[in-house]
Amino acid sequence: MMPPGCFVPLLLLIGWWLYARVRRSAGIVLFASAGIVLFASACLVYLLSIPLVGETALQSIENRYSPPAVLQGDVYVMLTGGAVSGTPDVNSTGHLSGSTLHRVVAVAELYAAKPLPIIVSGGQVYADTANEGQLARSKLIALGVPAEAIRLDDRSRTTQENAQYSKQLLDEGGWKRPILVTSAFHMPRSVKHFAAQHVQVVPYPVDYKISRGTDWTGRLWIPTSAAMDDLSLTAKEYLGLLQK
After folding, report:
1. Cα-based distances in Å from 30 to 22, 26, 33, 39, 241
2. Bridge pairing between strands 93-96 and 83-88
3. pLDDT-based confidence at 91, cuts 50/70/90?
């Protein structure tokens, strides 16, 4: 009964009420048409808000790339993906989004397994958000990555700028085989923009949102706002792939 699920029975009830009035009001086609539209709207809202649809759509883009079995590269390039400002943290203020934090932890683990220089790419996207790159750099250092191993691009506001400014740092460092670390849903768009900068990356997707290898359950048919978020994120990424 939480939104958006509550909208489905509400639309159905209104649609039934309007359609039922046709029986008492002969010749009033408007009520019948409105009722049918509301019934159809209820079905559409239901389909757009169930995990079965949202997760299937998001998985279609998450599955484009898989982590390589063997790491072959000379530098890690980690893209950020959101942060909030002014909130209290352990050693500073501001918090990374869940996706960005997943990427940070993954890079720290990769560095522990195979120490390579790290390029962190991401700036302050909006006036009321934090500088993602600076926060990510601080978190990597807190996780044990040496400060001297990190190169920072804290200007990027878009994936296109991530690729552009990272290319400059790659050229300055003489690195030719970057291992690109970002969320699985964000990887196809990221690879495309790096390719536009004539940079061939080794994709290392992390931060998967959708489970794999599980059976269908009743949960997949219950409307949730998270399912609509998955669908919205999928639409954003596919639209981003159309960007030149």
Report:
1. 9, 11, 5, 14, 42
2. antiparallel
3. confident
**Structural domain boundaries, residue 57:** 7-61+226-242
pLDDT(17) > 80: no
Count other Cβ atoms within 10 Å, centred on residue 119: 26
* DSSP single-letter state for residue 147: G
Residue 152, strand partner residues: 120
In a domain, 94, yes or no: yes
* Residues 70, 57 share a domain: no
CB 106 within 8 A of CB 179: no
CA distance 42 to 5: 10
Q: Over the Cα atoms of the chain, what is R_g?
A: 23
- Under DSSP, is residue 101 helix (H, G, I), strand (E, B) or coil? helix
Q: Is 242 exposed, middle or buried (0-12, 13-18, 19+ CB in 10 A)?
A: exposed
Q: Provide the domain count of the chain.
A: 2
pLDDT for 24 equals: 55
